What we know:
By secondary structure, the chain is of the alpha/beta class.
Amino acid sequence: MSRHTELAGWNPLDWPLTTGVIPSLVLAVGSAALLGLAYSRSKHWWTRRLPCAVVLAAALTVLLRFVVDDWWVPFPDGLPRPTLFWIGVAVLGLCLAALRMPPLRWRGRALAALAAALVVLMASSEINRQFDQYPTLRVLLAPWIGKTDALTTGQVTPVHVPEGKTLAEVWHAPAGLPAKGTVSTTPIPGVKSGFNTMDAYVYLPPAYQADPRPLLPVLVLLTGQPGSPVDWIGTGQVPEQLDAFAAAHQGLAPIVLVVAQNGSQWGNSLCMNSKIAQAQTYLAEDVPDWAHSHLQTATGRKSLAIGGLSQGGTCSIQLAVNAPEVYGTFLDISGQEEPTLGSRQETVQKAFGGDQAAFEAVDPLHVMARKKFPDTAAAFVVGDGDGEYGPQQRKVYQAAQAAGMQAHFQTVPGGHDWNTFRAGLGVNIPWLAQQAGLIR
């Protein structure tokens, strides 16, 4: 049971926002507000203002889609149709309210404004249900109300693991070991890459607090795009999922570093060394160097895994095939078939100045077509309802198999959303621990 559900019975911050009564109530109230805005006894309203509101809302929605998908391009796949629909509903509510207000008195204007706000709330709720980005108010407010722990530093006596044994077979949790791990934030500077990015989140399992200390493996976890490290901590429930694993294994679990591979919420570094950024150097050198110099960890490529969701999943296989000496294991959740800024042509032009060969030199499908990776362990996960990323994931999985990887493919309930991303990590935590020699 997660920390969220433990408190959900009494704390409003933990009431579910994407399932149950609250989103259904918001949908009902918002729909009633929209109908109220659309209805009037005035013939002038039906013949002029209502058609104007509908046409204006449609035009603004189309314009917004153009600005986001064709001009700004904050993410390569564009706005999903359900998202665009609910944006259009929100815009329609605002347009209806704006056209109703001129002849109204101040009370009527206030009611129209309130109704428009309820329509916007409804649309936001439905978009949130689509992605399950904010399952509770606590997750939504996490950047402001979330608390982190001081990062544990310093070296203590390590636990020795004999050849042929797993850490779990020789580890005995001491009395008084904490039941939960710690979550801290820290900058991980781009010493070699010069890459500037947001602070990372560090999860240290309960066993890390012990002395002597077991040398634990490290999972570098990447965000989606757009996205930030806090997404995995709150929405992805990394602490809860790892704490649950640790509770079943005497406090043992992988250390997790959640890093922002794109530099910012809306950026896209492509996780490559290119004209955009030296992102591969950051992930393959700066991040592992920081982990081993600031934390007491296991070493070796099998003790260092990389994983991520969506664009972060694509990044994980990029690092695994372009820096196989660093990462021996990767977890690709709902990734793409290739790194992209929207199209192959645009990607090659912006990242490599039009040099197609330079792109193919680091693109995972091209790399796997010419190299073998028999010592790399790979997991591919996708939602069973994801019609866009599912075929791409299967294509990359088949290429990984052909390249000799120890690969497996899984589907979990969901689409391209956090239901899939959370489950994709959760079902593979034991596998990650096995690959790193943590458990048998």
